[in-house]
Design goal:
Blueprint: H1 2-25, E1 41-44, E2 47-50, H2 51-54, E3 55-61, E4 64-69, H3 75-84, E5 92-93, E6 98-101, H4 107-144, H5 150-183
Antiparallel strand pairs: 1-2, 3-4, 4-6, 5-6
Helix pairs in contact: 1-4, 1-5, 4-5
Length: about 180
């Protein structure tokens, strides 16, 4: 039972890393990419949905992203979602679609992106700590109720900490790689 809890935690750790990488792909690094806005949440029909659920996202050239909603009444909501996001982009509404012009990155913007990157990595590490804490609580409860021996608890705690250390190394490595990509002119 303890082993399955540790395995589930490892799966959750991987999901955290996958989510972080998805967020990293949305960071603007001076090139247009549909991933910049696809997962941005927009209010549509009374609930929050990702942009890709309400519009088609195209990249006509390396500096432009075009978001064309399937329902024209969504234009204002899309525009608001982009303005409210941390993309720092100024959307242009031409009545049919939202056009985003991606400016080349300035040194200041690169530094800002590195700060955003650091915040995202820290949120991932916090998520990993929360998962670890939940599993530790379950393990200690199981030991207290006699479902685990003290040795089994110690082994499970050791395995869990090894998994935490491994995923934190991966988070740090991915953050370093992305920072390198952002700072490369």
């Amino acid at each position: 039972m303890a082993h399955s809890l540790v395995q589930k935690a490892q799966t959750d750790f991987q999901k955290t890393l996958d989510h972080l990488l998805e967020e990293y792909s949305g960071l603007q690094i001076g090139r247009a990419s549909s991933s910049l806005v696809e997962n941005l949440m927009v209010e549509a029909y009374g609930m929050m949905q990702p942009v890709k659920a309400v519009a088609s996202v195209m990249v006509p050239d390396g500096r432009t992203v075009q978001i064309q909603p399937w329902d024209k009444s969504m234009l204002a909501a899309l525009e608001k979602a982009i303005r409210d996001s941390d993309l720092n982009l100024n959307p242009t509404n031409n009545g049919l679609a939202i056009i985003l012009s991606i400016p080349p990155l300035t040194e200041e913007r690169r530094r800002d992106l590195v700060k955003v990157l650091g915040r995202m990595a820290e949120e991932a590490r916090i998520s990993v700590r929360n998962i670890r804490q939940t599993v530790m609580t379950q393990l200690k409860r199981m030991e207290h109720e006699g479902e685990l021996t003290e040795d089994e608890l110690n082994k499970a705690e050791k395995d869990l900490q090894e998994a935490v250390n491994k995923i934190n190394l991966q988070i740090d490595e991915q953050a370093r790689k992305k920072e390198e990509a952002i700072m490369t002119v």
